[in-house]
Amino acid sequence: MKLSIRFVLPLVFVLAILSYVTLPIVDTFTMRWFIRDLDIRSRLVTNTMEEPLSELINANSKAKILIFFKSVVQDERLFAIGFCDLNGVLQYQTDTFLKDFNCNSDLLTNATNSTVLPLEKGSIHIAAHPIDYKGKAIGRLILVHDMSFITRRGADTRKYVLYLFVALAIVISLVTVLLAHLSWRGWVSGMRTLLRGEGVLDPRSQFSRPELLPLAKDLRDLVRDLELNRTSKDESHALWTAASLKKILKEELIGEEVLIVSNREPYIHLQKNNKIEVQVPASGLVTALEPIMRACSGTWIAHGSGTADRSVVDKHDRVLVPPEEPAYAIRRVWLSKEEEAGYYYGFSNEGLWPLCHIAHTRPIFRVEDWDYYVKVNEKFAAVVLEEAKTEDPVILIQDYHLALLPRMVREKLPKATIISFWHIPWPNPEAFGICPWREEILHGLLGSSIMGFHTRFHCNNFLDTVDRFLEARIDNETSTVSYGGKLTAVKEYPISIEWPSRWSKDQKSILETRTEIRRVNNLPENILLGIGIDRMDYTKGILERFLAVEKLLEKFPEWIGRFTFIQIAAPSRSSIEQYQNFESEVRALAQKINTRYGKDGYQPIYLKVEHHTPQQVFEYYRAADICMVTSLHDGMNLVAKEFISARDDNKGVLILSQFTGASRELPEALIVNPYNIAQCANALQIALTMPDSEQKARMRSMRSLVQEFNVYRWAARMLKDAARMKERARLRGRIRESQSSHQGNFSI
Ligand code: F6P
């Protein structure tokens, strides 16, 4: 005890003085950095707003300007915006703007300036930037940022620096005490005993050493604290929302810009009867990523495929979306008819799509299609480079259309964090090996920092395929591939949907929706309804679904006239012959079954081959008694999760194919093999006769899973992993630098 005091107390004293001197310096630096950050941020916001704002000012549309300002101040730190004209008159401002603000105030004397103003409840940062219209100055934009977060961050930083000193004090003190107390042998044997957890705390043990007791206790307490801290951090995000995702972006990927790249765009502008209509395409990818983009406010790069897409973009081929409440930009990539035919219809959808889905449709690979695929991937890469404003953006590359893009971008932006997500299944090496350009595709994908799939099974197939066809080192334990000296993490991230759904707002009651949907389809009010919502695609098991309905009516004729199945099939990839043939088969089968069982105005199957808005689809989910998802093979299938999210009455039965990724997460659905028609018909019979109480028990459990594992959590997991990888890369870089400065050049 005496010895401890002799060594430890002076040490703690010195460290306390050190922290006393250091903390104010840390404070000053933190403040300076944050003010610089806010200056840069204000400039960026002004650059982004300048064009639309100057147009609105020129058009003198005050109402629109105020709406525009309001949408920009959604950002939690930017709390007020104003605009001063050249005469120094405050023309437009948000409600939150400073009272009595003087445009000619001394605070902002120069054309471009910023200042920090201390107020009663904390400080604010005011920045003024000139606004031009067609090269002529028209006034200044005043941006007011709340700086309270700096105080919070400062407090955090102080806390962590203090912790650091305390930890240092503990470690150094313990080492000092140990060195003073123990002989080398005694120390070694003591440490061994301590690490084994034996004897130290047991006074009866022959290894018991009283001087180690405090050390062991401290270590145990430390481990317990860390453990507690970790769990509470995970649990604090039990319900993931757009706001918590935003927080991750701000806190863990500070200052990082986010780019999404996909073939399909989230909003398509179409020319219809001299009017421009906006369509949300039927795409699981869009359903999942759109809410993420709303939360992150980045840029989404995609093929501009709509007939009016060109007429709505600005001179940089960008358009702000969603149209009703702009939150992010789509940057459109234009493709010629030939490029679209070769890259999209040809290589992607006649080659890779059937290759990856075990749906027994033969893949077709043509050299010309491959050439276009390479060319279009290069085109996308050029646009990514144009859009990237920093050297280390986070780039989320989506799906099989862009398999070469990760490598192309990596070569130009070596510091970028590239997360590729493969939305469809990845087959085993034998199946993938059919592709004549298998090595090129794998080489392309391994330009990614993270390669994501929906299931572990698809990750394993990918790792096996890399192992089979490339010279790469695979670590199955950490699920990483080391290829060409670079690491790619291969991880499963089961995709999901936003919760609560945007479409659930202002919904009619389930009862009203049931009545309405039956009325518009001329169906009797009490008829039981099954629905299928898909793109018209041969992987979706639509034929099998119809055969199951036919079998049901055959085995249980009491349902004739009492059960109808509505199939909504969005037209898809219709230039491809296999899709045309498939559509004909679907139509013919529906007609055959309707002829066989239809009578007196009753029709067992309603086939609607047309686009439906997400809002309309949501209503069908709410009106139905059963939803059938019978894909022959599907990466995840978000229709299953959307149906669940629509059923706030906890009712409705989901029949789900065992060959979807979703079936792994939703065992409470009636899981079927779609190739087994009799089993699917039985599932329909079970669903139609399932008591309310059982429906509710199953639906409740599925709803709580989808709510918890929603799409914000999906994105947050990937972004957190990306942040961690970035941090590790930075650390490795620093270690390498310091080692080479000590020992000359060598590799680690
Ligand atoms: O989810 C797989 C996927 O191919 C997406 O990439 C795509 O957006 C969606 O299905 C719909 O297909 P398409 O974009 O070809 O209409």
Fold and architecture overview:
With 748 residues, this protein is α/β, with parallel strands linked by helices. The chain has three domains: 2-152, PAS domain (Beta-Lactamase); 252-492, Glycogen Phosphorylase B (Rossmann fold, 3-Layer(aba) Sandwich); 508-709, 3-Layer(aba) Sandwich (Rossmann fold), CATH 3.40.50.2000. Helix content is 49%, strand content 18%. It has 22 helices and 23 strands. The strands form four sheets. Strands 10-11-9-6-12-13-14-17-16-15 form a ten-stranded mixed beta sheet, with helices on both faces. It has a six-stranded parallel beta sheet with strand order 20-19-18-21-22-23, with helices on both faces. Strands 2-1-5-4-3 form a five-stranded antiparallel beta sheet. The protein starts with a helix and ends in a 5-residue tail after the last helix. The chain binds 6-O-phosphono-beta-D-fructofuranose. 6-O-phosphono-beta-D-fructofuranose binds at residues 264, 283-285, 399, 423-424, 535, 572-573.
